[in-house]
Amino acid sequence: MSGLHPGHPLLDSVIRVGICRALDGVRFLPDWEAFLAGLGCEIVVSEPTTRQMVESGVRQAPAELCLPVKACVGHALALQGRVDRFLLPRIVCRRTKEGPLFGCPKAIALPDMLRALIPDLPPIVEFLLDEREGDESRAYRELAEALGLRKRRAGGWPTEKWPREKRPSGPAAEWSHRQVTEQAGPGLAGRARTPVVAVVGHDYLIDDDELSLGLLPRLAAAGAQVARGTPEASGAAAILPGFEPDWLFERELIRQALGWASRLEVDGLLLATSFACGTSAVTYDIIRRAVRRHRPELAVLELVFDEQTGPAGLTTRIESFVELLRMRR
């Protein structure tokens, strides 16, 4: 229920709904914008991450949280006073052909965490997706009800099944999406002397130039050819993990990484994560073990980002990695 009584001014005016350009909000942003526009809402999306947002989030959030969650707190603070409602995702469970898979524990707790960290935040409405209880269309219906609204746009409720096409948002994401389009196709082996580096990690980290310190442009500047996303099928034998956790997005990363590792034209694998990310500690160990068993000559670099990471050290590690790959070709 919305908690809005009949005659409440918000029911007779346009509701401004704030969306943080962070975490799983990046993944759902295009669908949410279309859905909320159909409800007659005004959508206010936070700006791309800035250093000020990161610093304000670090001051407000507990030290144990990962960098993207701290940045999300900064995004919420930046929207404070500009919106009537905050929309946050709570992706609990997806039903797949392999059984139920679950979201990141910290991201599941994000709405409750923000309520506790920022007591004077505008009311939070949740996009609660738990397919043990109902499908995605139910999550949209409940979202409309939480806003005190009903679906006005023709065409019914969104019912697309996971995974859907990723549609990144913001300049950094547009840059990376262009690179995927140009470089992740069958022409990867076309540049004989250019090392090919497959970059694996959560989009909300890699595609955020502030959080990743411009990781993708730095790789390109060092002379690497970047491969992103899910690789196309090749004739090489698939590399299979010995174990896959029941985490929805982490399985996606495992399959991306091992898909690229099975392609012989890929020279290196770069795993990007953030300090205090509990799921990546397990996921990336699974990836490294599988690579060592099936393709031990593949170079693997893991980069860990937090609020203390500096551009000079990052550039040195990237340039050294790319030079190593160039020497081994």
Automatic annotation (TrEMBL):
It comes from the Bacteria. Signal peptide: none annotated. It holds the Pfam family DUF2229. Residues 157-187 are annotated as: Disordered. InterPro entries: CoA_activase_DUF2229, Dehydratase_Activator_Redct. Residues 16-226 form the DUF2229 domain. This is DUF2229 domain-containing protein. The lineage of its organism: Bacteria, Bacteria division WOR-3.
